[in-house]
């Protein structure tokens, strides 16, 4: 298991679109940045890179490089996903806190969650989206994102197990082979989930 943490902040600016977690959000202002200013995806990128000690967003995508001007921040996340896969890990779950006065996040949290889950290639149930207003912080014109992520090792598939048995009566062999081949086997009884949905079997 590995844990990662990411943080980012961007100032609100009139005349640019607001994008949060890859979702375009109708609002009076957007977030200033060299890229599309998606504060949540930047914090996610840093959480993923940090979990495998692979540096941070700026080491991969320097703000001095014109290639990333106006870039879709999903590109940064995809690169971080490649880094964690190369290191042998995949995401267990991710949690986040957005800190901003407006817009209100709760009414659109489901859409942001679905967008983030889609970019990460994980189910929505493994993505947490929360929000707070920056009360007492004197940060009215700013959006802040904090993200934590938990990774697990992808791991090698378990080697096939072999069984040996001594049978004296050849008729008994027939019974044992038939029971192995013909009868349905419920793997849940062995305490392990099958790697597929048994209802899908035809
Ligand atoms: N931009 C925001 C900020 C907050 N919320 C929701 O309001 C709750 C109360 O926030 P406080 O910071 O005032 O304690 C918060 O837990 C969120 O549910 C929001 O939706 N969008
Ligand atoms: C994403 C990059 C690169 O375009 O720039 P910004 O969009 O300004 O975002 P920030 O989180 O300030 O810094 C990371 C940079 O690498």
UniProtKB/TrEMBL annotation:
Q: Which reaction does it catalyse?
A: 4-CDP-2-C-methyl-D-erythritol 2-phosphate = 2-C-methyl-D-erythritol 2,4-cyclic diphosphate + CMP
What EC identifiers does the entry list?
4.6.1.12
> What range(s) does the 2-C-methyl-D-erythritol 2,4-cyclodiphosphate synthase domain occupy?
1-150
Q: Positions of the site: Transition state stabilizer?
A: 34, 133
Biological pathway: Isoprenoid biosynthesis; isopentenyl diphosphate biosynthesis via DXP pathway; isopentenyl diphosphate from 1-deoxy-D-xylulose 5-phosphate: step 4/6
UniProt cross-references to InterPro entries, sorted A to Z: MECDP_synthase, MECDP_synthase_CS, MECDP_synthase_sf
Q: Which GO terms describe its molecular function?
A: 2-C-methyl-D-erythritol 2,4-cyclodiphosphate synthase activity
Q: Which UniProt keywords apply?
A: Isoprene biosynthesis, Lyase, Metal-binding
Ligand binding (4-CDP-2-C-methyl-D-erythritol 2-phosphate): 8-10, 34-35, 56-58
Cofactor binding remark = Binds 1 divalent metal cation per subunit.
Residues annotated for a divalent metal cation binding in this entry = 8, 10, 42
Top-level taxon of origin? Bacteria
The protein's required cofactors: a divalent metal cation
Query: What interactions and quaternary structure are annotated?
Result: Homotrimer.
**What is this protein's function?**
Involved in the biosynthesis of isopentenyl diphosphate (IPP) and dimethylallyl diphosphate (DMAPP), two major building blocks of isoprenoid compounds. Catalyzes the conversion of 4-diphosphocytidyl-2-C-methyl-D-erythritol 2-phosphate (CDP-ME2P) to 2-C-methyl-D-erythritol 2,4-cyclodiphosphate (ME-CPP) with a corresponding release of cytidine 5-monophosphate (CMP).
Similarity comment text for this entry: Belongs to the IspF family.
The UniProt entry, under NCBIfam families, shows:
ispF (TIGR00151)
Name used for this protein in its record: 2-C-methyl-D-erythritol 2,4-cyclodiphosphate synthase
Organism of this sequence: Terriglobus aquaticus
């Amino acid at each position: 298991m590995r844990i990662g943490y990411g943080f980012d902040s961007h100032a609100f600016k009139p005349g640019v679109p607001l994008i949060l977690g890859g979702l375009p959000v109708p609002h009076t202002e957007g977030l200033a940045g060299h890229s599309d200013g998606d504060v949540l995806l930047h914090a996610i990128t840093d959480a993923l890179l940090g979990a495998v000690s692979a540096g941070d967003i700026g080491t991969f995508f320097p703000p001095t490089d014109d290639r990333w001007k106006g870039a879709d921040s999903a590109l940064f996340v995809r690169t971080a996903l490649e880094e964690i896969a190369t290191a042998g890990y995949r995401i267990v779950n991710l949690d986040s806190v957005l800190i901003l006065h407006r817009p209100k996040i709760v009414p659109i949290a489901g859409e942001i969650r679905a967008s983030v889950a889609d970019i990460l290639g994980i189910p929505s149930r493994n993505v947490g989206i929360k929000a707070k207003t920056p009360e007492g912080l004197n940060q009215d014109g700013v959006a802040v994102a904090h993200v934590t992520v938990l990774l697990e090792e992808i791991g090698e598939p378990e080697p096939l197990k072999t069984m040996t048995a001594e049978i004296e009566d050849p008729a008994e062999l027939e019974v044992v082979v038939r029971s192995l081949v013909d009868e349905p086997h419920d793997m849940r009884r062995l305490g392990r989930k099958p790697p597929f949905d048994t209802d899908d079997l035809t």
